[in-house]
Amino acid sequence: MENQVIGLEIVTNTLTSVEKALSLILKDILLQPSHEEPLINLFGRTLSKPIVSKINNPPDHVSSMDGYAIKNSDIENEIVKFSIIGKSLAGKKSNKKIKSGETVRIFTGAILPDGADRIILQEDIKLISNKDILVDIGKIEKNNFFVRNKGTDFRTNEILVEEGEILNARNLSLSIASGNSWATVRSKPRIGIISTGDELLKFGELTNQNSKDMIISSNGVFLYNFINELGGEAFYLPTAKDNINSLNDIFQQIKNYDLIISTGGASVGDYDLVQSALNKSNFKLSFWKIAMRPGKPVFFGSLKGIPFLGLPGNPVSTGVCAIVFLKKIIQKFLGQKLTDDIVYMRLNKDLEKNDRRKDYIRSKISYHINEEYRVEPFSKQDSGQISTFSKSDGFIIREPYQEKLKKGTKVPVLRPPYKI
Predict the structure, then answer these.
(1) What is d(CA 230, CA 252) in angstroms, rounded to the nearest whole number?
(2) Cα–Cα distance between 187 and 41 in angstroms, integer?
(3) Given pLDDT bands bounded at 50, 70 and 90, which one contains residue 253?
């Protein structure tokens, strides 16, 4: 790692920029191996090889409407009476070959009989007997033959879904419709989650008169669902107590993971305890403390060759750091394009000058009278307020030392991943 420090003894007050921190993190994230699985099981998975069509769709020239199949040259020659010589259904092509003055009754999706190249809609004819029709030339659309030609949707050997794309309900259905039954995907990165702190209550436990100084642990639940939703495989590791032995026992058990995330123990003071435990396991530090708000006390390094991301214990800081860093970590593991969902909107109120840290301001988005979306920060930005994080539609991004911004100024807004 660049500027690597063995252990955690050497730390400074220098803040690493968000961009530099992300670069250092991603440098140590390796692409996951690939394997084949049945397509039917691969919803939400990431392709490591493209889906290539095995067939043409449609497989032949088919009718797009119910009607009568004829030769277009007959219409050009103003022939209007046709003898019905057969019927063509979807999945059951007529074996008749059409000659001039002949037609086959045809239904949507049916293959055109030999000799036919045009469909006359059933509402554009008059049935004069069980075996004869008259075409109303004045009704027909001259340039619309109502024929779907072979391969107009996709053709054999055409790439339908690119490498690195996520299989969703639509492209999974397309893949199966193209004759594929298996696909090659990236293995899900195995990500272990460690929560730290004597003050943490387990999921489902409530504070009482004797435990008012306790906190219900929610970071692990957030990270577990965040990781799984974005394509990883999350694992709860034991909650660490605020003592060296508890932390050391957990660190010694870590193996067979692609990434470890801890929450808590990253701030000054708490960090000393985590530092001592990690030092015993030959932790290699890349950086500690980032010029961002919330999330300043983030650290990153390597434990037993496994990337280790230390997040603050504050739930809002954990959440914002997950959106900024963990999303891209998972994308890198899976070979996806590294993306941020950033949109530009006008401010609904003034913003004061920023300090040396990059700000991610919890905000609400509203539809303005001028038919555009506006963004407004919550009045309270305390990093202990989980409710505003939960209600946020996005996060206004403020660069370090950015000047005061007036209402109506366009600003970048980071949107959380869908369903997060």
Answers:
(1) 28
(2) 13
(3) confident
**Nearest one of 74, 93, 85 to 140, comparing CA atoms:** 74
- 240, 234 Cβ separation under 8 angstroms: no
Q: What is the mean pLDDT of the chain?
A: 90
Amino acid at 14: T
Strands 81-88 and 62-63: unpaired
Q: What is the C-alpha separation between 292 and 227, in angstroms, rounded?
A: 22
319: its two tokens:
């959440």
CA distance 22 to 325: 6
Q: How many helices (H) and strands (E) does the chain have?
A: 9, 27
The answer to whether 216 and 360 have CB atoms below 8 angstroms apart is: no
Cα 387 to the center of its chain, rounded Å: 24
- CA atoms of 321 and 327, how far apart (whole Å): 9
Count the neighbouring beta carbons within 10 Å of the beta carbon of residue 267. Answer: 16
Beta-carbon neighbour count of residue 134 at 10 Å?
12
Query: Positive or negative, the Cα torsion across 407, 411, 414, 415?
Result: positive
Structure tokens at 348: 């609904």
Q: What is the pLDDT of residues 180-191, one digit of tens each?
A: 999 999 999 999
| Pairwise CA distance, residues 109 & 275, whole Å | 68
Backbone φ and ψ for 99, nearest 5 degrees, come out as -110, 175
